[in-house]
């Protein structure tokens, strides 16, 4: 087994360049910083639409007639355009601004209406990414500034068939799946622009190929049970690496259009239990949802600190080839909870809070603990009942085994260098609905310890400076 070094993509490039400290290796053209022994991270996930969204077609009669004609025949055709413009006014590796955008294209088909097949549905979902993300170009952080940041391309995301059974109490979904649409999701966290509030930075960093979610997906089977209106049980098995073993850091380039349909990699299992309460408008209590789950991966994972001869990976006298561990796992919990509800209004208008936490083993993962939370103010202005305002924070704790490696690397090299510890992303955002299906969202983010406290390529003895980021998101949905 040999250590690989690949040119990174997206925020992965940022991490690989900024966080690398000691092992001699091939150099990236943008910075002379060496590779570190850690699992790769690509892009935290944008949450893809999983329901019929408000449509701007409602403001244009001809478009609404067209959309309604499709819906009458059981076809929901949806296009969403998201555009992000962000700049870091302070901090990061360099200051500047970037523009990136994505077009989501989704078709849901009700096969009962189309072909008389009761309980059957079909989805095909693709997107086109354009532009350059700020995390990759300027900040070099883990929790991606924009949730849509990815390698520019046109890519298939989902292609699946679902059959409901037992009076809709159970369903089976088979095909090309993305885990971030159903697992470890927070409804109220979906307000935020930073990618970690979708597919968490921890999962993107710890899973091979960054796991099955935006911008990648993989073949899988998902089973869903809803024994009553409150309880939902989910289980899924995925091909465990969207690109395949040996291509860490190059996932988006290897499967550029999302049509590799890999089936032979070690499996990834997900399981989750959800309990929802007070979801109806008539409920007297406050709405909330609690989720508990986890995942297990059956592959081999490299140790962050020790070589197979027992020496530190940073020790030049050692073999420099990491120990391997059988399997990897994480456990997690999620809560979405209304604190106060507008009198006589919808159950989820008012003041809401959310939180997600997750943990995984230290020795084989980039991030061993993750926590996020926030407070949302939803529809509080009578003049603007569809607007939302929120303040969120996400904490990614770098595995202590990485800190041990960094300390060893500094000792053996005799050079001062920072020790990675954590990254904290803070976000203040306001989403304004101009018309149904069209929102604009001014956004302010502050990133503490970009790259988990990684070295600045321009000054390897110092950390990358904390970054203040401002920007604007525009989202139009047909």
Overview features:
478 residues, mainly beta, Porin, 16-stranded antiparallel beta barrel, two-stranded antiparallel ribbon, globular, disordered N terminus
- Our estimate of the beta-strand percent is 35-45%
Largest sheet: number of strands, sense, barrel closure = 16 strands, antiparallel, barrel
Spans of at least 5 consecutive residues with low confidence: 1-52
Radius of gyration: 22 Å
Q: Quick one: how many beta strands?
A: 18
Question: What do we call the CATH topology?
Answer: Porin
Query: Residue share in helices?
Result: 10-25%
- The overall average pLDDT, rounded, is 87
Supply the number of helical segments.
8
Description:
This protein has 478 residues and is mainly β. Helices cover 13% and strands 44% of the residues. The chain has a 16-stranded antiparallel beta barrel with strand order 1-2-3-4-5-6-7-8-9-10-11-12-13-14-15-18. The protein has a two-stranded antiparallel sheet with strand order 16-17. A hairpin with a 5-residue loop joins β6 (218-225) and β7. The protein starts with 9 loop residues before the first helix and ends with a strand. Residues 1-52 have low confidence and may be disordered.
Please outline the helices and strands.
Layout: H1 10-19, H2 61-72, E1 75-90, E2 96-110, H3 111-115, E3 120-131, H4 134-139, E4 153-165, E5 170-177, H5 201-206, E6 218-225, E7 231-239, H6 251-254, E8 267-277, E9 288-307, E10 322-341, E11 350-359, E12 367-378, E13 388-398, H7 400-413, E14 422-435, E15 438-448, H8 450-453, E16 455-456, E17 459-463, E18 467-477
Antiparallel strand pairs: 1-2, 1-18, 2-3, 3-4, 4-5, 5-6, 6-7, 7-8, 8-9, 9-10, 10-11, 11-12, 12-13, 13-14, 14-15, 15-18, 16-17
């Amino acid at each position: 087994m040999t250590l690989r070094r690949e040119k990174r993509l997206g925020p992965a490039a940022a991490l690989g360049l900024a966080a690398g400290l000691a092992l001699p290796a091939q150099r990236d053209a943008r910075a002379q910083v060496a590779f570190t022994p850690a699992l790769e991270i690509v892009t935290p996930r944008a949450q893809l639409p999983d329901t019929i969204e408000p449509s701007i077609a409602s403001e244009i009669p001809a478009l609404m007639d067209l959309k309604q004609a499709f819906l009458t025949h059981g076809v929901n055709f949806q296009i969403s355009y998201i555009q992000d413009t962000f700049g870091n006014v302070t901090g990061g590796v360099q200051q500047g601004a970037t523009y990136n955008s994505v077009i989501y294209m989704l078709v849901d088909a009700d096969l009962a209406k189309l072909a008389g097949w009761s309980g059957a549905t079909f989805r095909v979902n693709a997107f086109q990414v354009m532009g350059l993300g700020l995390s990759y170009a300027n900040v070099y952080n883990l929790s991606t500034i924009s949730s849509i940041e990815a390698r520019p391309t046109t890519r298939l995301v989902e292609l699946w068939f679902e059959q409901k059974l037992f009076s809709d109490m159970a369903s089976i979904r088979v095909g090309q799946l993305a885990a971030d649409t159903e697992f470890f999701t927070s409804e109220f966290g979906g307000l935020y622009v930073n990618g970690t509030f979708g597919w968490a930075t921890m999962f993107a960093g710890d899973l091979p190929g960054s796991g099955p979610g935006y911008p990648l997906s993989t073949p899988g089977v998902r089973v869903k049970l809803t024994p009553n209106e409150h309880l939902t049980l989910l289980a899924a098995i995925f091909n465990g690496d969207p690109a395949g073993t040996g291509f860490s850091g190059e996932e988006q380039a290897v499967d550029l259009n999302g049509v590799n349909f890999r089936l032979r990699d070690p499996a990834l299992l997900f399981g989750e239990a959800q309990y929802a309460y007070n979801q109806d408008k008539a409920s007297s209590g406050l709405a909330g949802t609690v989720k508990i789950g986890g995942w297990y991966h059956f592959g081999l994972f490299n140790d962050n600190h020790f070589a197979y001869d027992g020496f530190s990976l940073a020790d030049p006298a050692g073999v420099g080839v990491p120990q391997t561990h059988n399997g990897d796992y994480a456990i997690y919990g999620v809560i979405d909870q209304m604190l106060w509800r507008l009198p006589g209004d919808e159950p989820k208008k008012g003041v809401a809070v959310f939180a997600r936490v997750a943990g995984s083993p230290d020795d084989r993962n980039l991030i061993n603990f993750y926590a996020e939370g926030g407070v949302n103010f939803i529809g509080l202005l009578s003049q603007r009942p569809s607007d939302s305002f929120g303040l969120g924070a996400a904490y990614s704790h770098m595995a202590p085994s990485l800190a041990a490696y960094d300390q060893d690397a500094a000792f053996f090299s005799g050079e001062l260098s920072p020790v990675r510890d954590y990254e904290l992303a803070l976000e203040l955002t306001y989403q304004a609905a101009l018309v149904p299906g069209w929102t604009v969202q001014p956004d302010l983010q502050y990133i503490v310890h970009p790259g988990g406290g990684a070295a600045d390529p321009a000054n390897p003895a110092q950390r990358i400076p904390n970054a203040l980021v401002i920007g604007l998101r525009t989202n139009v949905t047909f």
